[in-house]
Amino acid sequence: MVENLLSLAIWTPIVAGLLVLATGGDKNAGLARWVALLGSLAGFVVSIPLFTGFQSLNGGMQFVEKAPWIASLNIHYYLGVDGISMLFVVLNSFTTVMVVLAGWQVIQQRVAQYMAAFLIMSGLINGAFAALDAILFYVFFEAMLIPMYLIIGVWGGPRRVYASIKFFLYTLLGSLLMLVAFIYLYQKAGQSFEILKFHALAIPLSVQITLFVAFFLSFAVKVPMWPVHTWLPDAHVEAPTGGSMVLAAITLKIGAYGFLRFALPILPDASRELAPLMVGLSLVAVVYIGLVALVQTDMKKLVAYSSISHMGFVTLGMFLFTGNQLNQWAVEGALVQMVSHGFVSAAMFMCIGVMYDRLHTRNIADYGGVANKMPIFAAFMMLFAMANSGLPATSGFVGEFMVIMGAVQVNFWVAAAAATTLIFGAAYTLWMYKRVIFGDVGNSHVAEMEDVNKREFLVLAILAVAVLGMGLLPDLFVSKMHLSVNDLIAHVAHSKLQ
Amino acid sequence: MEMKSLYLLIALAPLAGSAIAGLLGWAIGRVAAHLVTIGGVAVSAVGAVYVLNGLLNGAPTFDGPVYTWLTVGGIDYSVGFLIDNLTAMMMVVVTSVSLMVHIYTIGYMHEDPGYQRFFSYISLFTFSMLMLVMSNNFIQLFFGWEAVGLVSYLLIGFWFKKPTAIFANLKAFLVNRVGDFGFLLGIGMVLAYFGGSLHYADVFAAAPGLATKTVQIFPGVEWSLMTVTCILLFIGAMGKSAQFPLHVWLPDSMEGPTPISALIHAATMVTAGIFMVSRMSPLFELSDTALSFILVIGSITALFMGFLGIIQNDIKRVVAYSTLSQLGYMTVALGVSAYPVAVFHLMTHAFFKALLFLGAGSVIMGMHHEQDMRRMGGLWKYMPVTWFTSLLGSLALIGTPFFAGFYSKDSIIEAVAASHIPGSSFAYFAVVAGVFITAFYSFRMYFLVFHGEERFRHVHHDDHHGHHDDHGHGHAHVPHESPWVVTLPLVLLAIPSVIIGFIAIEPMLFGDFFKNVIFINHEAHPVMEELAHEFHGAVGMGVHSLSTLPFWLALGGVATAWLFYMKAPQIPAMFKAKLGAIHTLLENKYYLDDIYFGVFAKGSRGLGTLLWKVGDQLLIDGLLVNGSAKVVGAFSAVVRKLQTGFIYSYATAMIIGVLGLMTIWFSGLIAH
User: Fold this and answer.
1) Which InterPro entries does its entry note (chain B) (predicted)?
2) Which of B192, B655, B666 shows the shortest C-beta gap to A409?
3) Residue of B128, B141, B125 lying closest to B82 (CA atoms)
4) Which of A142, A161, A230 would best serve as a mutation to test chain B binding (most B beta carbons within 10 A)?
5) B60 with B190, same domain?
6) How does residue B226 score in pLDDT terms, banded at 50, 70 and 90?
7) Number of domains present in the structure of chain B
8) Which tens digit of pLDDT belongs to each residue from A83-102?
């Protein structure tokens, strides 16, 4: 057993990213690509033992590493994962490989910088998921914004400057308050930034609520929850395909993870008090955003809105209380939905990227009858569209199903509102599919489209295996999280009002 | 062989065939693709017969897991099989009809460029349907439920260039999703209140103890748990089995190739709802309210969909509305607790309706892809096998004594007559009136297609079913009999359409076939016992029927059809002129399609646009985000001289501005 697996998962892609940068200008683009691919593969390989070596029967943190970092402030380089965060480290490392492949031929300018940005971001994201020290978390959490900001701002579409600034400001605004919250908790915890010590603090309700608002501003923007979601469609539309894939698959998950790691266990009483608000906002995301997605004319915007709607299930599942008990079906469903959405949304953005590379438009109206020219692609996209519609045997079903099952136990009408996604989700996804893929060849540009190449096939096939695998064998993932989720539920059930 | 391995083989053989034909079809070619899929389904069919035979000879019921799909809270949610008589019978029906349709497809689709894809889909359907009927738990049931919906969607839109086809398949999927919405919530109720298991046996064991339990769906209002759960589950059945008012997708599904209309939209998938309710009889028996609801929905479907069959001119649509009406009959049987009768009608209907659809397909082929009956007539001479088998199918459908449909439909009528639950008198009227209507539209179709004037000679043939070429037979317009791969399934389906009722009625309805499989509360709902009391053998039932009302109504329907369409064709035209309003109402299918499209489809889009433009763009982006940035920008313009003018100054200002607004907004929210 290798020591320091988490450090490896963090620093392998970052070092690989620096190596990619060292390959220099675009005359060495080929080399940069291969170094990036090898680096991302190495990052994925070192993350696999986290999954296989994880002890499902042990609660608490595993693969723990701890070393002093800034001794004067009692800040530590303190890492560890439980059955929840471990899944996202692996998912993130996996997605990075997909992203490198997705940008292989598409990106022709500043290739090394593009690849390096993704690799470095991958390491930083792993750091955010693995950090057990609040300041360490904060540093990773903020630092990962920078590569994404660059990815959108440099390789993005025509309105990339507007989108990247909107993205940056939106997501930065809450984090300052989060820092303030951390400093308060630091004082309260006897000059310590250890997150696990935060969990044990007794805090009066009024303070809990204030802190909750601080965390909410930081995390709700990331998820994103309605009404702080409008940066996401703009960011997606302008981002290159790889950027959208990471944004949807991973970046959004950090927000939801934040609620799980900070808001719920540190502030259980405030979480209960404000649960109706969280549930309400989540249902708005499911229904309102589902309707908005229906009328989008831009494919990427449509999938971006669909992402917000699907993330509504995540926040919904995390805040379903019966008395002071969170619902196990719902919490685990939320987690499954997070992982599944990582696969499905990455795949949907990949599909749109594949078409965009050929026609350089994302307008639904510019397509039609793509299946005539790209039958293999059409089959893949059918699978992912169905996963996006929550069809059983795909990963998209499992999370939504579990959250709805949990919701019925808590409140029938919440479940009924959430279950409308069965209709709306299918409506916006399949209506888009119909207009883009089905029908007779729409125009002369579509007539010239060529089916997927080997690289695209590879990415789509791997994602297809992931989507089906998780749909058919969800227990593989869910069994890893049981104890951590049970611990969380037990912890949250315990009031912290002295 | 261990039985579980056999069950796995039965379920997975079609999946393997589908995967090979679908993924490797381009490499292995057309013949190999149809051979491998037919082989897979044949294995399943033989296996299914073997399993049923074993059960009939005393083999024990199987109920066991295959693999763990999910564990939550220490409870195991496994994929698993429940193989009892009901399942085995469904397996035989599904695989045998599927096998016939596979063979038929060789002829029907032989010129289609999507040949391999088609075989892959119908084998995938067979797998999905088997998973549905073989399930021993609600999750797998829902998987099969959605998977057959997926394949139905793929097959209705098989000719994806056709605008009507891709409209119809989207419509079918979404309408089914409305049903699934209820179904999923019903499963949620089961999980929440029946002890945390979704395994049938556990749920059914828990049900009697919950018969009087109430839940508050609306705060302060106590509703029976069983009623709420059963109605939610039945909403799923209304979608899949096309019951009013969720029936609107089924007629449009005729846009798909005819073999799948026979397999999916007549014989098997659409009966999933009937199967499901029968499977859940231990739950439904505990709620008279739910049963009455089912009864009324079924009656409406049986009667009013029959009316629509009368005015159709497209041969497939006549059969489609007939299917809707017959599904209504089955639902009525469920509503009066005559589950065995419903399943019995499901089985006989599967054979004669598949036969009628495949016959219609054969006619369409023979007519060079013409579907309008007004351009047919006199085909019996040219297509003898199709003609005769279709006649047998029609006789079975209208309930001619001694034919399969007679035994099942007459049993439904008698069951309704014996029932006393609320709604049964309306149901009785509906199913009896339905007999006349069924006979009338069936023989209207029969006469228009096979007898009378050879109208195809007069009309210029314009090929508006553009997907197909002229079928490669050169000298168009003279109908021809179909090849043997098409007529053989017709003959093989005609046999059970005639005899299966006579053979099966006694064991299925009055023997031990459904003992310990279907649960009936005989004290509260003594319908089956009354039927048994009056039953004196299959022959006696046939003879006795000659003196009953339904027989004469059926005869009257046939005679009227003969009068209207053979003897005096001016009569229908006269009716059409005199009763214009009714005709328009029927022509527009009671305007339900227009209402749904106008209210739900357009309404959702309108609401979506409103939320997007006003909510997202105007209020959130315009006011909150850009607005606050502008306010801060204006403010900083005033104090610009104090500023460095660097971009980060403005960025900081914007952040503070947005923060301030958000804080105010949230403190307002929290205060409430």
Assistant:
1) NADHpl_OxRdtase_5_subgr (IPR018393), ND/Mrp_TM (IPR001750), NU5C-like (IPR003945), Proton_antipo_N (IPR001516)
2) B192
3) B141
4) A230
5) yes
6) very high
7) 2
8) 899 999 999 999 999 999 98
